[in-house]
Amino acid sequence: MHLRASGYSRDCIALYLLVRSRILGRCPARKIVPPQENVDAMHRCWPRLVLRDLEGYLTLYSSSVIHHGYSSRIRPGVAGLRDHYTSLLKGFPDLRVTIEDIIAQGERVAHRFTFTGTHRGEFLGIAPTGNQISASGMQINLFSGGKCIEVWSVHDSYRFLTQIGAVSHLREKREQLPSKSVPAKSGR
To answer: Which CATH fold would you assign to the domain 31-170?
Structure first.
C-alpha cells in the first residue's frame, strides 16, 4: 500500500511507521538485561553505601533516574539521591543496610531491607540524639541497560522518625504555634 497516494500527511505516515517498527521490533528500544545481572548490580552497589562510597553506590542509577517515595524536597535525578544519601550518612555515620529479600522479574528488582544506625549528626533539622534506630523498607527498581532508571521506595517513616525524636519535636513545634480562635456558632 502506498500511503502517500492515499492522502495521508507526512506526519501521519511517520507516526504510522514509528508505531509499526516498534511493534515489529525494528526500532531501538531499552536494552534488556537478564534479571540476574540487575540483581548482581544491586549486590555490588548496596555494600558501597555502607562503606561510605556514595559515588560507587550511585553508579547503580542512571543520571536521570525517576524516584518515588523520597522527600518531595529532593531534586530530580541522581543529584537528588546524592543529596538524600549524603544527609542520611551525615546523620547516621554508622549506617548499616541489610538486604533481607531480593526478587527479580524481567527488568524489575524488588528488595526488602532493614537499616540500622546511631543518630550522631543532624538529620532533618533534628540535633543528634545518640539514639539507635532500626527500621525496614522496600524498593522496586526498574532497570534498563544495567542502570536503575526508576525507583519506588517505602519505609517505616513513623518508626524511624519516632526513634530520632522527630515526632515529639514536631508536636512541640505545633504546640508553640499560636492557636487560631474559631468564632462560636450562633444559635440561629
So the answer is: Nuclear Transport Factor 2; Chain: A, (3.10.450)
